[in-house]
Amino acid sequence: MRRSGEGCSAVADVYETTARAILTQGTLVLLAGKASEDFWILPGGHVEEGEHALEAVRRECWEEIGTALADLRKLTLLPSIWTRRGDVVHETMHLYAATVRRGPTGVLPSGPERQTLLRWASVDDVYAGRAALVPVAVWPWVVRMARAS
């Protein structure tokens, strides 16, 4: 559905079903992004038609970070509404937590998807705006998982 108003750019309502994972290393959380964006998201992505959310999070994380997830467990089904490039995103997120088979603290995995940027961020980075993590609805879950690590 497109809406427009005088002096405003067109806005679309976008409906998405995603599967994302909170991947922690101590009190750091792994974030994914793109050079063309001014925000970060949790690794994962869209659930394809006919795909189970668990399969989607495994596939998407493999594509983005190039490593298998261990101890994958579902945390919640998280509905949220946020803005991306002027569009209103209505996201239903299957939120998981997992550990990553990884090397030393702070070393980034190197996935096969070159357009995906990765970074480790602290909870303080998120709250201070140094890592603009969206949607905001994931923040309490990220804090909980980082504190539990």
* Strand content range: 35-45%
The shape, in one word, is globular
Low-confidence stretches: 1-7
Structural class: alpha+beta
Give a short account of the largest sheet: 7 strands, mixed
Q: What is the rounded Rg? A: 15 Å
End-to-end separation in angstroms reads 42 Å
Write down the secondary-structure element order.
EEEEHEEEHH
Please give the count of helices.
3
How confident is the prediction overall: mean pLDDT? Answer: 84
Share of helical residues: 10-25%
Number of strands: 7
List strands and helices in order, with pairings:
Elements: E1 2-3, E2 11-25, E3 28-33, E4 44-46, H1 53-65, E5 69-84, E6 87-100, E7 117-122, H2 123-127, H3 139-148
Parallel strand pairs: 2-6
Antiparallel strand pairs: 1-2, 2-3, 2-4, 3-7, 5-6
Description:
- Strands 1, 2, 3, 4, 5, 6 and 7 form a seven-stranded mixed beta sheet that branches.
- The model is unreliable at about 1-5 (pLDDT under 50).
- The protein is globular and about 40 Å long.
- A hairpin with a 2-residue loop joins strand 2 and strand 3 (about 30-35).
- The protein starts with a strand and ends with a helix.
- It has three helices and seven strands.
- About 20% of the residues lie in helices and about 40% in strands.
- It has helices at about 55-65, 125, 140-149, and strands at about 1-5, 10-25, 30-35, 45, 70-85, 85-100, 115-120.
- By secondary structure, it is of the alpha+beta class.
